[in-house]
Amino acid sequence: MTKIEWCDESWNPITGCTPISEGCKNCYAKRMSYRMKGRFGYDKNEPFKVTYHKDKLKEPLKWKKPKKIFVCSMGDLFHEAICDETIDDVLSIALLAKQHTYLLLTKRPKRALAYFNYHFPIGVDGNKEFYRKDYLTDNVWVGITAENQERADERIPVLFKIPARIRFVSAEPMLRMMLLEKYLGYYNKYAILTEEKPKLDWVICGGENGHGARAIPSYSIMNLRDQCVKANVPFFFKGWGKASPNTGRKIQGKEWNQFPKIKG
Description:
alpha/beta; globular
């Protein structure tokens, strides 16, 4: 089990990471790794160094009941220190234990894209590009973390190039107001939906927790919720965060626990 509300289990064949952007400042995974240093495969001196735990690799094979699994909640599967062969090992489990849904969340979509382009090379039919092996299996969802507008604009266009059926954004910790309309299906000033361009399938949002948590104005979170509602994109609200005057997981009296569905 896990305390992360938007999944049923977290699975950590890879742990450890290095800071890459503003959201990393108060990393919860780093704090947790130091609590476990010297135990459970975490190095005594450098508990948050990037580590491959082969003994954890086959865990999903033991879980018979279908689960939503957050892959590498204690690290980043697409960290530069992880070789392609190790990523192969991890993703092979998704093919063996197909009853589960695997949620890959990264701050390094360029590395992820390079990996998938190698394994799912793009071909051309006339003017239309396609992936030679079509998409990843439907039970592998790919998402990026975007803590502010700058990171959203940097990472989401790269995410759209990755051949996943479900692409999502985790705005947690959300540090600034974010306008995601152009990624949610709105492409003109009249907010008319179109299917001509890719769009996000899911948005997760939450404030920051832990020591030194940074506050986010409540209207910023409500605005992102409203953007998703208008675009008919599932929205999941994880919580207000430690620094917020609000508490719990409700926005204006309602919990938002929406999930995407595979189309077709």
